[in-house]
Amino acid sequence: MTEIPPLMWHKSSYSNGAGGNCVETARLEDEQTAVRDSKDRGGPVLAFSHRAWGDFLAAMRGGRLG
Predict the structure, then answer these.
(1) Contact present, 11 and 22 (Cβ < 8 Å)
(2) Any idea where the DUF397 domain is (predicted)?
(3) Which of 33, 40, 57, 62 is at 20 to 30 A from 51, Cα to Cα?
(4) What's the pTM?
């Protein structure tokens, strides 16, 4: 398992203070975006290329998923 150094995590602007379903993201040095569950900060972290993460967000905003 790869260790991830301390990161500057950012919670989604769509999150509320009620502890809803939220994700946090952080930029990695190797042109990747780390993603984790804000309710399980010590849990698993996924990493995506900046482009793949941007494409995912664009698809979500455009209603092309789910």
Answers:
(1) yes
(2) 8-61
(3) 40
(4) 0.77
